[in-house]
Amino acid sequence: MQELVTRAQADTLFTVMAVLGLITGAVAAWLARRRGSSALAAAALWGGPLVLTGVLWRVYNAITDGIGLDSVANLALNTGLFLLVGLVCGLGWTYVLSKHTPESAAGTED
Fold it and tell me: Is the pLDDT of residue 103 over 70?
């Protein structure tokens, strides 16, 4: 039986996604700077997810290749990694939104 998608094809896809994320982030930063907004926030929010996906693909494969696909340790380590990344991204998103939300929209009116 032949695989529908080979690992080489998936590697290529995630590499292209990461490169597109870098380009998207750079364009978003440039546009944000022209508007007077935070370039770093724009780059992170627009290009960051694509770059992060590419990086996590590589890390996931390194862990799986090292420990083995059919092991509880692999499942636990990758689950912990993805939970940690999700937590950090969520906290980062909350921080960015708190810095860029007008006071009246945040519900802090007197």
Answer: no
Portion of the chain with pLDDT greater than 90, in percent: 67
Angle subtended at Cα 74 by Cα 71 and Cα 80, rounded to the nearest 5 degrees: 140
pTM of the predicted model over 0.85? no
- Report the distance separating Cα 4 and Cα 44, nearest Å: 33
- DSSP assignment letter at 103: T
Question: 3-class secondary structure for 42-87?
Answer: HHHHHCHHHHHHHHHHHHHHHHHHHHCCCCHHHHHHHHHHHHHHHH
φ, ψ (nearest 5 deg) of residue 36: 85, 15
d(CA 70, CA 54): 23
pLDDT of 97: 77
> Distance (Å, rounded) from C-alpha 27 to C-alpha 41?
12
Report d(CA 48, CA 24) in Å as an integer. Answer: 9
